[in-house]
Known about the structure:
The protein is mainly alpha-helical and about 500 residues long. The protein has 20 helices and 7 strands. The radius of gyration is 31 Å and the shape is elongated. Its main location: membrane.
Amino acid sequence: MTSTSSNPNPYLRANLLSRFFHSWLSELLSKSHQQQTLHLSDLYDLLPHLESTKLTDQMEASWLDELNQYKQKQKQPSLLRATLRTVGWKPLLVGLLLIPIELSKIAQPIVLIFLMNFFESCSTMPIWGAWLLTVATILASLCTSLIYNPYFYWMQIFGLKMRVAYSGLIYRKLLRLSSDSMNKISPGKITNLLSNDASQIELVLQFINNLWIAPLEIIIVIIIFWQFVKYIAFIAVGYTLLLLFIQLGFGRVFLHLRGKIMQVTDERIKMMSETIQSMSIVKMYCWESAFAKKILSVRSESERDNRLMSICPTDLFTQLYGTKGEALPEPAKVPTKGLGLQCNLKRATWKKDDFFQLRNIAFDAKPGDLICVIGAVGSGKSSFLQTLSGEIPYFDGKVRLYGSFCYVPQEPWIFSSSILNNILFGKEYNRHLFQRVVYAAALESDLNQLPQGRNTIVGDQGFTLSGGQKARINLARALYRDADIYLLDDPLSALDAQVSKHLFEKYVQ
């Protein structure tokens, strides 16, 4: 989402040295020192290449390419390939900075060995040679510090961008899921995907270059050891290989414990959510101690696994392991042909072998068409609209919506915020469009009567609205989306005849 503040980021106009030494942050640090705190208005605008919308769009496009290849070539979609197409080869190119870093680390002890010869009693090294070796030791250490910090910074930026892209992709997938599919996913699993699995890409990118730099470094160190100690160098090599196999064993134990912790965490979050949602029932029947005992037992199991995992020496190699996740299902795609709706419904039902079923419904809708579905209560009008929007779980037939669509349910939904935010619902404010929407939804007189107009807080902790006001705000929110297709589920049921006539003429038609 694009930032709406007016505090441009000084990184965009900073020169190369300022970016290298991060001196462009000095103004912000000085302000923090003077104020002893920082406010939201003090923070700079987000850099364009770090905006979540752009990153998620790139990741989604790469993932859709994987799905298209699966359809055309029957090639299994891979999140790894989609990630490589999104981030490119930049992390590996930045990883070339590790070559001078590791060479400096290796050169520093070698230079110190030659410098120690100066302090021997029979040394013939001149003083200027000793000073030269001393300066070389300092420069090697300085080179390591100066190069490693930019390398670490850029690898963290790459990891952050991919974590944001993963989180955005998960969020968009959740928005596309039907209500039946959402009921099959626990909140704990979603929390684990966002907080744990998506963040693993940061660790992977941070240490990915060790896969190729570490073997080169080992070879160079073995050659140097051979020059000094000959066959004794193989003792160090054998010891290193022994540690490697030990670390691999501990890594497997670590992954096993990590998987158990994820399952226990998922269960604990699910249990806490259900307990909080049903707190009135828990209090009514005095079940506090029973639920507390159950939650504490799950928490103690999680703490036990955490203690076991903390004693595993996994800091050497296990950082290279990424979590293996399931491929995300294919998101809904909007075809490139003209706007409209095609419906050839053979059968749709909420449950398998249910008595109530929608059967043999076929029609086409073109731009400008107004189609009304009329029937008795319980005849399936709402189920039909939810079939068009993809909410019904068991479905046989073909439904295609060409263009963006907006579904307005029969029961209006209002969240705790201002009326303005309820109508905008995350979109940018357009004064002309907002006024047209308010007029079409017959909200002008209501906004004039409310204490703070469009900025009046409504919802659970705000101003109480009538059923008709909620319905019109719901309609205004849908109209502000400026969608191509609107699915309206009896939105005029809570309104009187005069307001209904106004809405039908100005809003529906």
